[in-house]
Specification:
With about 300 residues, the chain is of the alpha/beta class. It is about 35% helix and about 20% strand. The chain contains eleven helices and 13 strands. The strands form three sheets. The protein has a six-stranded mixed β-sheet, sandwiched between helices. It is globular. About 45% of the residues are buried.
């Protein structure tokens, strides 16, 4: 059994060997089938699949995206089953498949952590899931989750830093930022030592190096400058202010939802798990699950299917 999570930017796979993450942006004619082919061992292989990539703007609407992903996966795994927001597996493209990956994580973890709030902080988004309210989660769309505060569009790698920073303080002077996509979340986290260059797995905004110096240059451009104008210290300040804003937003929302749901524990998964588990005094699922915690929905849907659901 193989677990697959098809996101807009990453294809995540969990099998008996562990977790495998491929940068696979759907808006660039992503080779989903050819990437999956390397994991096929026999024509009868089973695959359990979740997705969120149907929202990519290369598709006219979500159903076109769902249909594309289902067809691409089935070319590699004809017997694949797809988990939906109705907490059921489906054989073909139906609207319930849209953005159901977070619910698979909740279904997998809710028995072991029934009184917890799960934060899954990935490359692009933060999912905040009160596991004790599982029955109320079934059927929620991403629109509904945004409205409830269960989904925040900020993550560890992708996303324009100015989304959270309309202005910064440089030497005490309020400085508006440019809305151009000059620097991403990964640049700030790399500069601050939260990720390694190897963990910077997405394209850089300028398609150049993934180094401290290159990230500092990209961050300086956020205020229409080069590092020699504001110094590396100025670019570092921008990274710090991004992190302070992002940390306050995510941690504040997690704590709010934990209080509302009377959660007794916070558990954290995703690429940002060690960082945010520390900030929230929570449990880093990487310590329990190992590297598959960085591909939690793929791990979760595989485990659910292996328990007998849908196959």
């Amino acid at each position: 059994m193989i677990g697959i999570d098809v996101g807009g930017a990453n294809l995540k796979i969990v099998d008996d060997r562990g977790a495998h993450i491929h940068y696979c942006p759907l808006w660039e004619n992503a080779p989903i089938t050819s990437l999956l082919d390397q994991y096929v061992t026999s024509p009868d292989d089973r695959a359990a699949v979740v997705m969120s990539g149907e929202l990519a703007d290369c598709f006219l609407d979500k159903m076109q995206g769902i249909s594309f992903i289902v067809a691409a996966v089935k070319m590699a795994f004809p017997h694949a089953r797809f988990y939906g927001t109705d907490n059921l597996f489906h054989q073909g493209a139906v609207h319930q498949l849209a953005a159901a990956n977070w619910l698979a994580s909740a279904a997998y973890l809710r028995e072991e952590y029934p009184g917890a709030v799960l934060l899954d902080i990935g490359s692009t988004t933060a999912d905040i899931i009160p596991l004790g309210r599982f029955d109320e989660l079934i059927g929620l769309t991403d629109l509904m989750r945004l409205q409830k505060g269960y989904l925040l569009y900020t993550g560890m790698l992708r996303g324009n830093v100015v989304t959270l920073l309309p202005s910064v303080l440089l030497d005490g002077k309020k400085t508006p930022t440019s809305s151009e996509y000059f620097a991403g979340s990964a640049d700030a986290h790399l500069v601050l030592g939260h990720i390694t260059p190897e963990e910077y797995t997405v394209d850089t905004p300028d398609r150049k190096e993934k180094t401290q110096d290159a990230s500092l240059k990209r961050l300086a451009r956020v205020v229409c400058a080069d590092p020699d104008e504001i110094g590396n210290s100025g670019a570092y300040e921008i990274a710090e202010q991004f992190w302070e804003t992002q940390r306050a937003l995510i941690c504040g929302q997690v704590l709010r939802i934990a209080a509302e749901s009377r959660a007794g524990e916070i558990i954290v998964a995703g690429i940002g798990a060690p960082l945010f588990a520390w900030e929230l005094d929570g449990t880093d699922l990487t310590e329990k699950l190992g590297p598959v915690a960085g591909a939690l929905p793929a791990c979760a849907v595989r485990e659910i299917a292996m328990r007998g659901g849908g196959f």
